[in-house]
């Protein structure tokens, strides 16, 4: 049980690091390029709705 909790915390931390890095990478003139962000999150394995880049959140 402790291992599962630790793994969950580590994965959450990795996910937040990917999001923070991609947020900086996809910012153009102070505005977010949502298509860029969506593609990075999808490639990072977020899956689900993150891989449907047709709509802006």
Quickly describe the structure:
The chain is mostly helical and 57 residues long. It is built from 2 helices and 2 strands.
Comma- or semicolon-separated keywords:
single chain, 57 residues, mainly alpha, 2 strands, elongated
What does this protein structure show overall?
- With 57 residues, the protein is mainly alpha-helical.
- The protein has one domain (2-51).
- Helix content is 60%, strand content 7%.
- It contains 2 helices and 2 strands, in the order H-E-E-H.
- A hairpin with a 2-residue loop joins strand 1 and strand 2 (31-32).
- The longest helix has 24 residues, at 2-25.
- The model is unreliable at 16-20 (pLDDT under 50).
- Residues 1-20 form the signal peptide.
- Keywords: Signal.
How would you describe the shape? elongated
- End-to-end Cα distance, whole Å, is 35 Å
Q: What is the alpha-carbon Rg in Å? A: 13 Å
- The helical percent reads 55-70%
Q: What number of structural domains do the residues give?
A: 1
Number of helices: 2
H-E order: HEEH
Number of strands: 2
Strand order of the largest sheet: 1-2
Give the DSSP E fraction (strand runs of 2 or more residues).
Answer: 5-15%
Q: What structural category arises from helix and sheet content?
A: mainly alpha
């Amino acid at each position: 049980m402790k291992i599962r909790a630790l793994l969950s915390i580590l994965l959450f931390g990795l996910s937040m690091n990917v999001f923070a890095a991609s947020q900086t990478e996809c910012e153009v003139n102070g505005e977010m390029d949502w298509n860029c962000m969506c593609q990075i999150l999808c490639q990072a394995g977020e899956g689900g709705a993150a891989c449907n880049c047709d709509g802006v959140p």
